[in-house]
Design a protein that fits this description.
This protein has eleven helices and ten strands. It is α/β, with parallel strands linked by helices. It has one domain: TIM Barrel, CATH 3.20.20.370. It binds zinc ion (ZN).
């Protein structure tokens, strides 16, 4: 049960979106800045995303007519312009994902603002338009992040976890739509294995690793909610995993009552219902705290 379900377009039973965070090799460069250039294996693991994973994902989306969302650090936009061009050519959304996957909470306000702006410069140079949405690297939204996003004209964030369906973030400076995520729909736990960043977990097989995501979808479908996957091209874009996803998509799309949309479209839909007085979204007032909680 969902307390305040959203009426989705065309009477759809639920909204669905696959968001891909194209981190590529930014992860190793930010984790080991002194010698990442000398660590070829994690660089190669990251490069799989833009060079092999994304073309495969785009082909599937073309076949099913899907327009989805990709969140990309500015550094990756500048280093993989052909991949960005391919994503844009197919009409997908590209959202902001920091500069080089720096942790916003560890950076401090000034450095966080600088990383946001440097990322925006990459959008200006390569994407040709400013992003509407943001996903914080590591989901690490600091208490200042919503304000920094509002000041830069962002429409939505997709990093927080306070509800099953989109809600509003209200600050003194303005508002954002929050398109919420959670760890149950993130492919890092079942599929990532990355010793260089101290992430050592057993890698699940394709169907076993993906099964929890399908359970999450069925619960959202039954409740008329939203299912949002947070995946990475170098993880779920790998051959055997994506084969499973492709088959699953075929079945779900055939149901005919699932609204697959980009996060920008989902956020805009909720905001337009709210502005028209047809829906009252839940509101979270931010920042949660101004200082240390004793
Ligand atoms: Zn990321």
């Amino acid at each position: 049960m969902i307390q305040n379900p959203i009426a989705w377009p065309n009477g759809a039973k639920c909204a669905a979106a696959i968001s891909f965070d194209m981190d590529a090799d930014s992860l190793i460069h930010i984790a080991k800045p002194d010698d990442s250039y000398n660590r070829s294996y994690p660089i190669s693991m990251g490069r799989y995303g833009p060079t092999v994973g994304i073309p495969r994902i785009l082909e599937t989306y073309r076949r099913y007519g899907l327009k989805q969302s990709f969140f990309v650090p500015g550094w990756c936009i500048e280093h993989y312009p052909e991949t960005i061009e391919a994503i844009l050519k197919d009409g997908h959304e590209i959202g902001h994902h920091g500069w080089i996957h720096e942790d916003p909470c560890e950076a401090g306000v000034e450095a966080q603002a600088a990383a946001l702006d440097r990322g925006l410069e990459a959008f200006d140079k390569i994407v040709g338009q400013r992003p509407r949405g943001y996903r914080a690297p590591l989901y690490n939204v600091s208490k200042d992040t919503p304000r920094l996003l509002i000041e830069r004209g962002f429409a939505y964030d997709s990093s927080m976890m306070a509800d099953d369906i989109p809600y509003m973030l209200q600050t003194n400076e303005g508002e954002l739509v929050e398109v919420p995520v959670h760890w149950g729909v993130d492919d890092w736990p079942p599929f990532a294995h990355y010793a260089e960043i101290d992430y050592m977990m057993p890698v699940r097989g394709p169907s076993a690793g993906l099964a929890p995501f399908w359970e999450e979808f069925e619960a959202a479908y039954e409740a008329g909610g939203m299912w949002l996957a947070v995946w990475h091209p170098f993880l779920t874009g790998r051959l055997a995993r994506w084969r499973e996803v492709d088959r699953w998509l075929e079945g779900v799309i055939a149901r005919g009552d699932v609204w697959f949309a980009s996060l920008e479209e989902i956020a805009a839909h909720v905001k337009s219902l709210r502005d028209a007085g047809e829906y009252v979204p839940r509101v979270e007032n931010l920042p949660y705290f101004d200082g240390p909680v004793s």
